[in-house]
Structures are given as C-alpha cells and as structure tokens.
Design brief:
Order of helices and strands: HHHHHHEEEEEEEHEEHHHH
Number of strands: 9
Mean pLDDT: 91
Family: Belongs to the acyl-CoA dehydrogenase family.
Keywords: FAD, Flavoprotein, Oxidoreductase
Shape: globular
CATH architecture of the largest domain: Up-down Bundle
Distance between the termini: 59 Å
Domain Acyl-CoA oxidase/dehydrogenase middle: 153-244
Cofactor: FAD
Pfam family, one: Acyl-CoA_dh_N
Strand content: 5-15%
Oligomer: single chain
Number of domains: 3
Amino acid sequence: MPALPSDFPALPRPAIDLAADREAIADFYDYADLLSAAETATLRRLRSYLAEDVAPVVEGAWERAEFPMQLVKGFADLDLAGLPYGLGASADEPARRLFLGFVAAEIARVDPSVNSFFGVHSGLAMGSIWAGGTEEQRQRWLPAMARMESIGAFGLTEPHGGSDVAGGMETTARRDGDHWVLDGDKRWIGNATFADLIVIWAKDLETNEVRGFVVPRETEGMTIVKIEGKTALRIVQNADIALRGVRVPDDHRLAGGTGTFADAGGVLRVTRANASWGATGTQMGAYEMALSYAQQREQFGRPIAGFQLMQELLVQMLGNVTASLGMAVRNAQLLDGGGGSDAHSALAKEFCATRMRETVSWARQLVGGNGVLLENGVARYFADAEALYSFEGTREMNTLIVGKAITGHSAFVR
C-alpha cells in the first residue's frame, strides 16, 4: 500500500490538556467548587490517571471493541470502587453522591465506555450486594471488589425484557434443598466476559418474587458469549448469558434487605442518577473536543472559532452542559440528604441524556467531515451517546415515571 507523501497536511488534533484543572472549560458555573478539598484532590488524581493512562488507549480499544484490562489495576490503585460503601484505605463512611457524580462525569468526559465499566462494577454489582446482602455476604464479597481483585457484573436485562424486565422476567429460580437452580437467559450484561461475580436476578417459582443471586463465572451451566457488532460503547464487553440448570448454594442468594427486587430498586435509583452524570460527562468531553478543534482548524485564513455560526454551536453546547450539570448536582444533593426519589433520578436521566444527544450531534457538526474520524475525538462520543440515551431507562420510561409523580396518574399499561 503506497504511503502518503511526507508533506501531506495533517488534520488538527484536539489539544486539551486532560491533566490540567479543567473545571473552567466545561464547568462554566464552577459547580465543582461544591466539593471539599479532599474530594477535589481525589478528583485531580483521577484526572491525571485518565490523562496519562486511559486517554491514550481508548481510541484503539474502541476500534478493536476490546476492553484494556491493564486499566483495572490503575483504577484499583485510585481506591475509588469501595467509596460508595465506606470501603477502601481512605474511606471511613460512604462518600457523598455529589462527589461520586463528579467521578462518573470525569471518567465519561474521557471515555463513556470506561465509565460504564466502572459503574457496572462499583454501582450495579457492588450496590446490589450492599443493598440486598447480609452483613456476612457483604464482608465475603465486597472488600475484594473494592480492591478490584474481583470484578462484578449485573444480570438483569433479558432478550425479551428490557423496560418491563421485573414484571415480565423469564429467568427462574427453583429451590432444591440447600441450593437454587437457575434457568433462563440474560442479555446486554456489561463486564460479563471477564467478571468474576455476576449478580443474576431471577423469579422465585414458589413465591413469584424476583430475587438476586451471586453467581461465580466458573459455575457449571452458565454460558457467556460476547455480543459482537455494536456501534456504541464498543469498549464495554456486553454479553449474552445462558443459564441452564445452574446450581448455586443458598448462601449465594442475597438474603439481606427485603430479599427481593425491591433492594435492586434502590440501587437502580442511584445508578440512574449516575447515568445522568455519565451523560453530562459525555457532553463535557464532546464540547471540549469541539472547542479545541475550532481553535485550531483554519478556514478562510483564520480559526473557525472566530466565526459566528461556530460560536453559536459552542454556546448551545455549553448551555446544555451547564443545565445538565445543574440538574445532576441538585439530584445528588437530594440523594445525599435522603430526599431523592425515583422521579428525581428519572427526570435527571431523561433530561441529561436528551441534552447529551443534542450536544454530541452539534460537536460532530462543528468538526464537519472530520467529525466521523476517531482521531478527532467527537466521533466516539457521538456514537456512544446512542447507548447512553437508552440504558438505565429509556427516555420514554423515565418520562412516565416522572409523569406519574407529577399527575398522580400512572400511564403504564399492562
């Protein structure tokens, strides 16, 4: 294959210094000033790691649809996974949701897929064990997960059940002496191809209640197959899981809390809130990439950042980012104060994800034809936004949750 001549013009590349203090770039109203000095210091350590170790590898990993396993140790060294539960060398009580939201936004700002990996492990998997497990089960599994020596996944969604998976769950659990037998299928399960533990949700055939079970990956009868051909969140290793006569001991059934899907409901309320932070961080990354590109790309003898139409796009993007940050921040404060509801988290997710879709589209528009190239950054955000828009509750389902809260009438149909 012939090589391009040495004087072939190179495209401008976004030149954002990811390790620098970036609050002033996309956090236009300085919401990060609400963090404590200790929280800010931790966030800056995270930012340095993302700049030095994550940002250089994500484009290639995205193109290959591979998860860079070397990142696990780096995240473990940051000691972040156990913070929601008061676990870790630097933790003596659960971290504030406000701080954890900024962590999610910071990771998504560099790569939405990597944020999804971390959220599935630390939020969904660990959160289910924390909310639904006994104290003995928490001590058995969570410390190793906090150190990221054991990676978790969350098996809820099914081939025929997405929004209505709890009511229409087809995976079953049958008691057999001191064991349970699980049968069914799960789909879109993030981290599943390399997770050590998968929290599987299944309907108890005797009581008709949905229960959670911690299933080690080597358990006989469980088959895990990576989903291929994705056009979004390609770094996330989503899988189909087939459960055929999978036997797990009774002490792997989450037996704390209510012992039912109600425990997962509280977890989903928090992770839905975190999804609003992920959508916000994705906007921040796309906006910053577009801004940097506009400052370097020259047409008609000057940077396109000096053109009125380009500035209009940038201001619209920044407005979306700022509004999304404001909603995510306030929802986190409500959760920290014990007042956050399903409707609050649902509105935050719906709003931030909808604004995200606009923002990444405008970023791609600003970068023009070059916007479809991975090397210009915005293409990855543009593609990944489509998955973020749908998971943790579609826009329509979150709208109905909020609609019921404000009208007192349920529009859900069975």
